[in-house]
Amino acid sequence: MSQGNTGVTAQVVNAQACPLREVLDRVVGKWSISILVAAAHGPIRFTELERSIEGISRRMLTLTLRNLERDGLLTRTVYPTVPPKVEYELTLVAQELHGTLLTLTGWAERHRVTIAQSRADYDEKRGLV
Question: pTM for the full model?
Answer without folding.
Answer: 0.74
